[in-house]
Write a structure and sequence with these properties.
- The structure holds 2 protein chains of 2 kinds.
- Chain A is mostly beta strands.
- Helices cover about 0% and strands about 55% of the residues of chain A.
- Chain A contains no helices and 11 strands.
- Chain A has strands at about 5, 10-15, 20-25, 30-40, 40-50, 55, 65-70, 75-80, 85-95, 105, 110-114.
- In chain A, β9 and β10 form a beta hairpin.
- By secondary structure, chain B is mainly β.
- Helix content of chain B is about 0%, strand content about 55%.
- Chain B has strands spanning about 5, 10-15, 20-25, 30-35, 45-50, 55-60, 60-65, 70-75, 85-90, 100, 105-110.
- Chain B starts with a strand and ends with a strand.
- The chains are: A mainly beta, B mainly beta.
- The interface of A and B includes residues 40, 41, 44, 90 and 94 of A.
């Protein structure tokens, strides 16, 4: 699946603690995305990146920050986790080109904030 | 911003029956994609449609983009248990991101 890995795959953390999720890709794609998936809400964009050190906010960015220091890695940080951030987080890359919006998703990280 | 509505939210069918999910927008879309997500899995890209009235087929799956480019459908002929999952439509936003519908969850009774 387009060489995308996410770590950790599962995490339980306490309210108020910082959490960093990692997305790693091996195919040198320029565009990378972080989504969260919640019942009744589908997939919602948190942040995205269009190159090294180039990032922007998505629909639900409050409480999250991102960094991309290398093409292959896109990090999502919850500065101070809250129970509302319990969710499944998916990273995706875009095989954009000539009008294609085709995206490939990583396996996901299930995060529980207690 | 633009939203896409998917109906139905859930569909339960007997194996062998047909299944259709619809994706509707109040505004014209430049493109639409369909994804499938198996239980416990991640979304997997199925197809992209860009032309008015476009119809594409993948084995038992038929995808259609409306003439006005405001709606799309996915039809599965003779469902199988392997078709179980949630089907999402999406369209490309201005940021290069995807805006997703909330999906149609398909269950198939053998």
């Amino acid at each position: 699946d387009a060489g995308i890995t996410q770590s950790p795959r599962h995490k339980v953390t306490e309210t108020g603690t910082p959490v960093t999720l990692r997305c790693h890709q091996t195919e040198n794609h320029r565009y990378m995305y972080w989504y969260r998936q919640d019942p009744g809400h589908g997939l919602r964009l948190i942040h995205y990146s269009y190159g090294v050190k180039d990032t922007d906010k998505g629909e639900v960015s409050d409480g999250y920050s991102v960094s991309r220091s290398k093409t292959e890695d896109f990090l999502l940080t919850l500065e101070s986790a809250t129970s509302s951030q319990t969710s499944v987080y998916f990273c995706a890359i875009s095989a954009r080109g000539q009008g294609s919006y085709e995206q490939y998703f990583g396996p996901g990280t299930r995060l529980t904030v207690t | 911003g633009q939203q896409v509505m998917q109906i139905p939210q859930y569909q339960h069918v007997q194996e062998g029956e047909d299944f259709t999910t619809y994706c509707n927008s109040s505004t014209t879309l430049s493109n639409i994609q369909w994804y499938k997500q198996r239980p416990g899995g991640h979304p997997v890209f199925l197809i992209q449609l860009v032309k008015s009235g476009e119809v594409k087929k993948q084995k038992r799956l038929t995808f259609q983009f409306g003439e006005a480019k405001k709606n799309s459908s996915l039809h599965i002929t003779a469902t199988q248990t392997t078709d179980v999952g949630t089907y999402f439509c999406s369209y490309g936003g201005s940021q290069g991101n995807l805006i997703f519908g909330k999906g149609t969850k398909l269950s198939v009774k053998p």
